[in-house]
Amino acid sequence: MSASSPAKNNALMVSGTLRRAPKGHAGKFLGKPPVVPEPVRRPARLAIMLALAHKLQQAIDRGAVRDRADVARRLGLTRARVTQLLDLTLLAPDIQERILFSESEDGLEPVSERSVRGVLHIEDWAKQLEGCCFPDGAAGRLAHTADGHGQPG
Fold first, then answer.
1. What pLDDT shows up at residue 153?
2. Who is most buried in 17, 38, 102, 149, counting CB within 10 A?
C-alpha cells in the first residue's frame, strides 16, 4: 500500500491491493493473499475399478475362484456389477493405460465409468478410441497415430 500526492480535488489517492477479508473484518487491506492449499490428488475412481477388474480376471484365470458368480458372492456384489467391472478389461489398451494413470483432483473425476461404458460394445479398438472422450482429448489423439490403431508407427 502506498500513498501518493493529492489529486486535483484534494483527494488523497491510495494504491494497493484490496482483498476480501474474513467476515467481520471487511474493508481492510491485507498484506499477503491467503495461502491456497495444494490440490488433493489420488488415483481416479475408474482407475481403481479397472485395476480391481484385472485382479478379479486374474483370480478367475488362475482358478482361485470358479467364475463371476463366485466372485460376486465373495465380494457381496451382484453378478451384473461384477460383469460391468470385468467388461472394463475389454477396453482398448490405450484407453486402459490412460485410465490407470488418471488422477482425481480435489474429488473431481477426470472421466466417469458411465462415459467409458458407452464404448464397451465397440469391438474395434480404433473406433473405441474415437468414441472415448477424455477431458483433454488425449484419447482422440491416440486414435490418429501413424498406423491408425493407437500404436506409434
1. 34
2. 102
Band of residue 27 on the pLDDT scale cut at 50, 70, 90: low
Task: Find cell 485410465 and name the residue.
Answer: 99
| Residue position matching grid coordinates 493529492 | 6
The answer to whether 44 and 103 have CB atoms below 8 angstroms apart is yes
Does the reported pTM lie above 0.90? no
**What's the CA dihedral at 100, 105, 107, 113 to 10 degrees?**
-30
Mean pLDDT along residues 104-108: 92
Q: Which residues does residue 15 pair with via DSSP β-bridges, in sequence order?
A: 2
**Sequence spans of domains, the chain:** 41-134
Which of 127, 131, 133 lies closest to 149 in space, CA to CA? 127
Contact 15, 1 (CB under 8 A): yes
